[in-house]
Amino acid sequence: MLPQRSRTSVLVFLVPPLILFAGGVLLPIIQSLVLSFYRWDGISTMQFVGLDNYVKMLGGDPTFWKAFVNQIVYLVICVVIQMGAGLGIALLLLTITRGREVLKVMYLMPAVISTTAIALLFQRIYSYDPKGLVNALLGAVGLGGIARPWLSDIHTVLAAVSIPEGWRFLGLYTIILYAALLSVPKELEEAAQLDGASAWQVFTKIRFPHIRPVWFTTLIMVVTYGLRGFDIPYLLTNGGPGQSSELVTTYMYKTAFVSTNYGYASAISVFIVIECLIAVALIFGLSRKGND
Q1: How confident is the model at residue 59 (pLDDT cuts 50, 70, 90)?
Q2: Strand (E) positions, 38-153?
Q3: What is the pTM of this model?
């Protein structure tokens, strides 16, 4: 039991952030939940429609389900880049002795660059006429035949808008995983190597089990942010061409501020919150199963 004075001190420090969290996070979620049961254009009187918005969303709106599938593909690409490539780069950083600090700073730069600047950068990179970096490199290696307008082709646009998001935070998650790898006891690795363990065995039996808590915490960050991804896809394509790069988040935004259907948009926002909670619960379940 904490003494009374200590409990009072804890409350003094906890109450202000809890109030801010309630006002900035919980209250908007509750307001969206309430508004999702109404039909409202932002001007006229709200009309109570019960579960109609949810019925429309889950059963009668093909655009929503197209956006949901796109969001899953977008999420998978982000996870592969940020967690897969991030872990690979973190492992490579362990082998570098000179210039490591410079590399870490360079990896973190995309995370501090303006989202608008990143979108404009990748518009130039993907440009078809004039040739951007991607098409110019393809031409330089003799693959000019597969050059295309990557942001206008319905077959490539979803991957094209996902890669910038993955690249944007790749450095941040790389540094997190790198810091976790540094905490692995060196004597365990050296003992395993003396016993004849391969590099793969050292990683799977010593390094990864040691960084597993950090890995799953980072995975939660990557997944929840991927499910809420909005800005770069919206700036690059606005969900187009057609609905090829429409995400649940961009569809929600356009439903609210273009179609002015705030009730339906609120139902979509509630769905985003629920899918994030489900994803976190699944990751926690995998984490506990791995620990067992």
Answers
A1: confident
A2: 38-39, 47-48
A3: 0.90
